[in-house]
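Subject: for your reference before the review

Hello V.,

The reviewers asked for a structural picture of the protein, and I figured it would be easier to keep everything in one thread rather than splitting it across files. Below is the amino acid sequence we used in the manuscript, unchanged from the supplementary table.
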Amino acid sequence: MPKKVGLIVNPVAGMGGRVGLKGTDGTTVAARARKLGASPESPRRAVDALRVLARIKDEIEILAAPGAMGQEEVVSAGMKGTIIGSAPKGRTGPEDTVAAARAMKRAGIDLLLFVGGDGTAGDIHRAVGRTLVVLGIPAGVKMHSAVFGRTPRAAAEAAIEYLHSPRPQSTNGEVMDIDEGSFGTGVVSARLYGTLRIPKETSLIQVGKSGSSHMAKGAAAGIAKELASIVEPKTLYILGPGTTTRDVLSELGIRKTLLGVDVMLDGKLVAKDVTERKLASLIRRRSAKIVATVIGGQGYLFGRGNQQISAEIISKVGKENIIVLATKEKLASLEGRPLLVDTGDEATDKLLTGHIRVITGLNDYVVYRLSD
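And here is what came back from the structure prediction:
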């Protein structure tokens, strides 16, 4: 008998990333993203995962939410599915995700795949708690939760492993989201929303983000001095988000946007909290470099919270012009796991494999492995 796999897509998840928004939760934010020229990310990512899952299409029955919440993506991937529930009226929202998940539970599915970010994971938790085994296909902006595949394709591979297992096992995955109170004080930390049951697979599923705080002043000063020593004149520096870049740039007298992408030229900020479109315009006629840091615990370099630095921007700048900043403590927190990228473009992800130099202090570098 075929295994039943549920599919729910949050159609607006991730739309805010490239246009500099910090998420797309809520109809107001989604409308603002559209006004800024954002286009949906989650349908494409859902199709990427489904095309991998198609390897076992004869062994599974896909139960998809209607319309843009799953049905359209199944068709786009060249697969067949059974539609569960009725199409929502107007634009979709969290309650539609909740209703779809509860319908999937009543249908007796073996695994629920959902496409979205931390907000969507919270909706799934609200709908089914720990009564189903679920797995997230990453399509949001932040994705701090430990319930997502490392990439859409990795999520599909993890699903196949789980469905093929003669004795499938599950474990708890933490559902996290930004702590708004801590963010107001200049600290990026994730609060625990709850847990979901996920396939017991470690290498294909991302771990949760560890909390961030101000760097020790000595560590920030050392990295700042090393960065200052290699900065070239008449070159744009694209400064990625995060407390590490914020604290390092503060040592150089530059007040950086905490969760935004800023641009520096000759020691001064020339653009703040930019969109992907603005970045593309700025680097069209100038040489540029990217200064990025690593997400603590997870190890992501690109594809989590910095989607403005898109695959197109990275390809234009080149791997050789990427500068990575991290303390040795942050690298040690990865416990030997590689740095990760999830740009949404397979060619760019492949470009970023191998090894990369990481500035860890004054005259201090570590060569660290990028995911391959």
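For the response letter, the relevant points are probably these. The first helix runs from residue 27 to 35. The two ends are 36 Å apart (CA to CA).

Happy to draft the paragraph if you're swamped.

O.
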